[in-house]
Design brief:
The chain is an alpha/beta fold. 32% of the residues lie in helices and 16% in strands. The protein is built from nine helices and nine strands. A nine-stranded mixed sheet has the order 2-1-4-3-5-6-7-8-9, with helices on both faces. Strand 5, helix 7 and strand 6 form a beta-alpha-beta unit. It is globular. It starts with a helix and ends in a 19-residue tail after the last strand. Belongs to the AB hydrolase superfamily. Lipase family. InterPro entries: AB_hydrolase_fold, Lipase, TAG_lipase.
């Protein structure tokens, strides 16, 4: 009788271990198994030009994304996906202004959760690892990281920075991080020790909000938009509040110019940039080789294109 009880206990323990392991695998699959990378297929003439990146490396290398060309990756934020208005516009802008491959990291099955702190943030490491693995796969096929450009917004900006760091310090040529998420990051001491400038050779950060955006201003160039990077006169209800406007400013900047201005008197800066050239502008067309580093300020307007494109030579009150 005692022996049967002991055997039963052992069997129960084994079942518990198997269930825990299997449950852990299934939980991981729910996070990483639904992530997709889509690419813009320039060969298609229909409206659905975003297609899944082929799972087969040979098919990937022979697709419309050529390993010998430049590439860009867009990483969306919380409660967004490939159908988000600004993502659709940015794919179009990148294809018009940048030759080569355009991809989107689509993790909407995870990002569409209402519970940012309970259901999305705890999976940040797994999401960053998936991006790093995708970059390693691209490199193994023949893509050159020195020809890579990654844009991320909010949580996507943090993923772009961390995924690129895990891929290799400063291997990616450039990252444009649009109002990187602050909640869940600024309060974690380990995160504060990570230098965004190590994620790529050139890192441009664009700040538009104080409530959802990071307090950090330590990218190669850090733009404070509107009211000191804290809020915007164009802010509307979600999803186009001060935070959500950042990618809309970036999209506008493909055509319209957001120039630097002298630091407004009410704004504070610990790394104020000096001596910028008159033609310097925020966005994809920012000349990251201009020799300028530190914080820049740029005024915004209430309505599209969110800038009056004026070059300032005087002082700002």
């Amino acid at each position: 009788m005692a022996q049967r009880l002991m055997n039963g206990a052992r069997l129960w323990a084994i079942c518990v271990v198997i269930c825990v392991i299997y449950g852990g695998v299934k939980a991981a699959d729910r996070v990483t198994g639904t992530i997709r990378f889509l690419m813009f297929d320039r060969c298609r003439v229909d409206s659905n030009q975003l297609v899944n990146v082929p799972d087969n490396n040979a098919a990937f290398a022979k697709s419309s994304c050529k390993p010998s060309e430049q590439f860009a990756i867009i990483v969306h934020g919380w409660r967004e996906g490939t159908d988000s208005e600004w993502v659709v516009d940015m794919v179009s802008n990148f294809t018009a202004h940048r030759p080569g491959c355009v991809m989107v990291m689509h993790y909407a099955n995870n990002s569409h959760t209402i519970d940012y702190f309970g259901e999305l943030l705890p999976h940040f490491d797994k999401l960053a690892n998936v991006l790093a693995a995708h970059l390693r796969r691209m490199e193994s096929i023949g893509f050159d990281p020195a020809k890579g450009h990654i844009f991320g917004f909010s949580m996507g900006a943090q993923l772009a920075l961390e995924g690129s760091r895990r891929f290799g310090l400063q291997k990616i040529n450039r990252i444009d991080a649009c109002d990187p998420a602050g909640p869940g990051f600024d309060t974690v001491p380990e995160n504060m020790l990570l230098d965004p400038k190590q994620a790529a050779r050139q890192v441009q950060c664009i700040h538009t909000s104080a409530n959802f955006g990071t307090r950090r201003r330590d990218c190669h160039i850090s733009w404070n938009m509107g009211n000191c990077g804290r809020d915007q006169v164009a802010a509307r209800p979600f999803p186009k509040g001060s935070h959500g406007l950042c990618p809309y400013f970036y999209n506008s900047a493909f055509v319209h110019r957001f120039h630097p201005v002298p630091k407004p008197k009410l704004c504070v800066s610990q790394r104020l940039a000096h001596g910028w050239p008159r033609e310097l502008r925020m966005g994809y067309h920012c000349d990251m080789n201009s020799g300028v580093s530190g914080e820049l300020f740029s005024l915004t307007t209430r309505n599209f294109p969110f800038t009056d494109e004026q070059v300032f030579d005087g002082t700002i009150p």
